[in-house]
Structures are given as C-alpha cells and as structure tokens.
Amino acid sequence: MPQGNGLVLAVLRSRAHRLASGMVLELRYTGRRTGREYALPLQYARTGERLVVRPQQVQRSAWWRNFSTPTAVTVRIAGRVRRGTAQLVTSDEPAWQQARDLYRSRWRRSSKGTTGPLVLISLEPDSRRVG
C-alpha cells in the first residue's frame, strides 16, 4: 500500500475522520483471486444509500476488477462501518450514465472526461436507524 494511503486510512479510522470523511471513504474487500483482504481510501460521491467510486489510473491499477460481479464489501464512511455490495459498471451499461452523473455532480473538475469504469456500492440498511 502506498504510504499516503496508510496515512489517509489512519485518519479515517481515528476521531479526526471528519477531516477527510466528506471526500474519502475506506473500502474493504476480499480479492477474488488472492483471497486476501484489502483496504483502500477512495474518493466517492453519494446519494442516499448509493455510492459511486471512480477508479483512478485504470491502466495501472486493477483493484476495481474485483467487482465485475456483485461483491460484498465494507465501507467506513463518516466514522462508521457499513456493509454493502459493490458492482463494476462500464460505459456500455445503462447504469453507467446515472453513476457518472452522480460522480460528476460531486467532483466536477476531476471527472470532466470520465469514460472509464465506475464502481457502484449499494449500502445495506443502517440497523441503527431501523426500529
């Protein structure tokens, strides 16, 4: 893991998480081939219980390929850990346009020429709100 990632993850896991929680989440998943658990800090956009993550440098990174089929994940967002399902969407799928628009609404500058894959994360209902 690059050094910067470790620092961002440490902030997200601390009481100081508010410094980064509005922009970055921690994504935890199990590699489909390795079976190892991974944790990544990723920039995200959110609407309700749906999150969109845009893989950066898709030619050099491969983590996003783990989500070609729906995959169970955990997400640390706003200081809380939530379970969800992540799914890769590509530009030839109907859900991609909506996901891209959501991401662009949050990150206008960094998403101008977005054409690559996106990862959609559907969070499970928050058990603390139910009841």
Question: How do the helices and strands line up, and which of them pair or pack?
Answer:
Layout: H1 3-12, E1 24-30, E2 37-47, E3 50-53, E4 71-77, E5 80-89, H2 94-106, E6 118-123
Antiparallel strand pairs: 1-2, 1-4, 2-3, 3-6, 4-5, 5-6
Describe the structure.
This protein has helices spanning 3-12, 94-106, and strands spanning 24-30, 37-47, 50-53, 71-77, 80-89, 118-123. The longest helix is centred in the C-terminal third of the chain and has 13 residues, at 94-106. It has a six-stranded antiparallel barrel. The protein contains two helices and six strands, in the order αβββββαβ. The model has no long low-confidence stretch (mean pLDDT 89). It is of the alpha+beta class and 131 residues long. The chain has a single domain (3-123), classed as Pnp Oxidase, Chain A, CATH 2.30.110.10.
